[in-house]
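WARN no homologs supplied; continuing
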Amino acid sequence: MTIVVTGATGHVGANLVRTLLDGGAKVRVLLHSFRDGLDGLDVEKAEGDINDPEAMRRVFDGAETVYHLAAMISIVGDPDGRVFRTNVDGARNVATVAREVGVGRLVHFSSVHAFDHTNGGTIDETKPRVPNDPDKHFAYDRSKAQGEVAVREQVELGLDAVIVHPSGVVGPNDFRPSRFGKALLAMAKGNMPALVSGGYDWVDARDVAKGAIAAADRGRTGQSYLLTGGFASLTEMAEVAASHTGARAPFFTVPLALANAVAPAGAAVARFLNAEPLFTDESLSVLNTGVRFDHGLATKELGHEPRTLQETVADTLDWFRSTGQLSR
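OK structure emitted
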């Protein structure tokens, strides 16, 4: 039985591929622009672009299950259209081809960002998704919601698919590393003198991988599942990281209002330096939504039991040490 993984070189993808291999699966990975994290793995490699239907037909040929993780994360909008082309058009193409070639099951990776956070409170799978209104919602959030719509259209036509929604991902096998992986490294090294107030829901990449495999095995067709963890402030994250390395915790915490006030200037400097800004309106808004996520359905139907933040941070920093990115 062949299992296909798109986005296999991303943070969650790297953990998913390894979990599948550990379970004895035959894995085919779709490669596009990155090759990170696949060295030494017994996988079949296939070149292609998710927006190329003929390429996807070749990649999906003979596949029993497809895990679609390929996506573009953005905290700076969608200035060149690639976010929507990847997250919406790409999802539509993957789902359409999967149905046409007879893939047994598609597991589509959406995000908790697909849900409307406007009114705060607790979010579960029944809550409304972000409307496609550019005046009220960020491009990335809208793209993930519209990507889910595209997959559900194919479900209505007979595709067997389930949808999973991870929150903020932390964990080992973070080869690139991810945006938050870089921040965690800075915390662990004592190189982050100040933090921004607020926090988010964090989940271990290994738990997301395990939950996705359970969704493929026994998730209900057309059902969404929140693969989330638990809330922690950035201050709590920094304290856990510092306690594991002995580094000095950040000196002070900047109020979100002040961070929002200076974010445009920081973004302008980043553009001048041709670099990604550390904070933008989009990234700061995530820390200030006030929402909590209920993963009760995934726990009940998929056995999703996220590990503790302390275990995740410890294992992540140990992995960074093993790759030479963090000294003892």
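The mean pLDDT is 92.
OK
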